[in-house]
Amino acid sequence: MGNDIVAYRITIGLFYHKTSLGCLRKTVYRYCFSLNDMLAELIKMISRFKLCTCNLYRTCSNLIAFYLLLLCLLLICGDIEPNPGPERTHEYSEKTLSIFHCNIRSLRNKLNYIADIIEDYDVVFFTETHLDSNITDDDISIMGFQVPVRKDRNSHGGGDLNKNFMSDLPSNIRDVIFINGLINIIDKATHFDTRTSSSSLLDPILVTDSIPVLDKDTIPIDRCISDHEGTYVTIDCGFSKKDVTIRCDDKVWFDSNLRRETRKRDRLRKFFIRSSSTSAEHKYKQQRNKVNNLKKQAKKHFYATINENLDELKVANSKQYWKTINMLIKSDRPTHDIPPLRDPDQNFNLAYEGTEKSEILNKYFCSISNLDDANKDLPEFDDRCHDFLSQIIVSEQDVLDIVSTLDANKAVGPDIVSNRMLLAVRNEISKPLLRGQKDGW
User: Fold this and answer.
1) Structural domain boundaries of the chain?
2) What integer pLDDT is reported at residue 440 of this predicted model?
3) pTM tops 0.70, yes or no
């Protein structure tokens, strides 16, 4: 803690009694009543300070007077804080992650508007229905962000869930949220229907209790761009950044202790080469022998442990079992290099060329699929039901009822036919659909 104002004044008073009052009386006692006079005196002290090389005695007294005048100015300004000064409070921690989401149709035509909104966010999500393989990543890339990760509906089976979180949710959705411990942190409407003037919350942000949410809200979006508001959340990522080195060429039994001793051996070797002394040579050879013994022990212990636990891993954890097997059979040879094969049609001679190996494997798999079923009678198959598709009679009214159950708000399917259009012409297409069903479409 620093000195407060009272302590400063006491210190100044004691200093007055211990110092010659020749120059102090001129500076402090005369000009302590007016701020303008003190500023004028400060300018005067600065000009006098420039003449310090002319007179050593006057330089020292002027310097002391100058420092005391600055001290008085600091005391009367009224905002002096104890060391280390006022505590600075940041609104957020520096280790934060901001995430933005918005539902926008025709994304690639609105990138200029979007780029101005999302420049302050770290991760950005967009819900876009009409993306397909004809639109490349370059068409929707935004400067300052990485290549987008896409989940196109037509090619990868993507989609979204349109449920209003401001009303009662279905029981299956409530169960999923409850089982996973999720809560919705957006409490404002995000979708505005201009036709019905209704609003709903279709863009929730679901998080768990363990995620420290610092801020969340909605971002107004121009109605010419989207009928959804943007949503964002800022979370505290209090994790430490750590660089991890992946050593692909190390042996599976090469542990951290052996690596540390190896580095020590290399340092002793470099010191021995530079100094060429007998003591350095002795330390280097001693450490070298130690590393060689540790390698033998680590290798022996590793394979002994693997042999004991390999059968248990095969039953308990098949993934870890095959991972261990791959480590054991790890080789510098590329994985696509097939070892030599014996050709049964060529007196079991070894085949080394790729074409010869492929012919041997092709003949082998063909021989497996080619079964000799001559003079073989198929077993009798018993019918498990007495109903057949040919016996089902479908009427035109049945087709009309099925088409009428379509949801007009659903997106188009793989046939690119809108449900709204099918509902509009359901009376006209029911008869052709019935005829197609009878003809075996």
Assistant:
1) 5-76, 96-236, 256-328, 389-439
2) 61
3) no
